[in-house]
Amino acid sequence: MESALIIEKFLLITIVLVVSLVVAMYMTLVERRFAAFFQDRLGPNRAGPFGILQPLADGVKLFTKEEILPENANKLLFIMGPSLAMFTATISSAVIPWGRDLVFGDKVISLQVADINVGLLYIFGVVSLGVYGMMVGGWASNNKYSLLGTIRAASQSISYEIAMGMAIIALLMVTGTLSMRGIVDGQGSTLYGLKGTEGLGWNVFYQPVAFLIYLICMFAECNRTPFDLPECESELVAGYHTEHSSMKLGFYLFAEYINMFVSSAVISALFFGGYNFPGQEALANAGVASYWITLIGVGAFFCKIAFFLFFFVWVRWTIPRFRYDQLMRLGWNMLVPLAIANIGITGVVMYLTGHIN
Length: 357
What we know:
The protein is mainly α. About 65% of the residues lie in helices and about 0% in strands. It has one domain. It has helices spanning about 1-40, 55-65, 75-90, 120-140, 145-175, 180-185, 205, 210-220, 235, 245-270, 280-285, 290-315, 325-350, and strands at about 100-105, 105-110. A two-stranded antiparallel ribbon has the order 1-2. The chain is globular, with a radius of gyration of 21 Å. The termini are far apart. It is an enzyme of class 7 (translocase).
């Protein structure tokens, strides 16, 4: 039984890793095509039908480009930076429940790599380590633009992780658990106890302020426009990865898109019910096999992820970049006080409604 469990987990890890890489790869094409649409252009359309092979062409280009190592760079750390960024991006999805357990007779297959009772803390811990990839790679390249991008990345990450953590505290007061599966399963109930709303008890309806704060901080943590100051090309050439070339640059770019995918999955799980969907109880009562309900839930989860991935792209090509002082003022002067106020209001409401003594 233990060997079968190891094989099952190994296959699940492989599937999650492959899906993450494929999504990251084709998000580059999706972003370029949407950018072209917004700007009344065609976008990449030469490599394969409708440009569908463009990500493969870009990958071959990155793998075959010349490796450049700056003369005064720290070689070991220069290589470790993008490797660390890619590593932290790929392991952050280990505690995300992608669906209910698949049941085939006596066989139960879990669609979660690791169900730990502090899964949310694990995600925050791994995400906070991701900034070290930018810091190490940027500092080791011995380039002033990279160093400035590194400093911006570190200060931005510290600032917005505080507001993000406080937003999650209010959510935890409502859910009462740090387990990702526990949080998702808790959203399978009714909305405000209304009949016919099974599967719609999503946390976004109970904690809209926490969701808004988390959404803004998610853009800052992923270094996406309008918070892409660590790699602001109009000021810092390419920021922390200015001196990186070939697949070292590819690792930084891939890590950003994998972080987008994982962040979209996390916000969907925390606030939008994850694999819960309206009508799931009706399907179960109608005698639909549990594995079909599970597969529909997985599809619903990925639809929610796709929406937030589109939202990332839409915001990038719609909203202009903030100045750095505006970025820090938003984090410290607005989001942190708002998150603290939300915690206080949540506590008062829970006390008045009898959820806490």
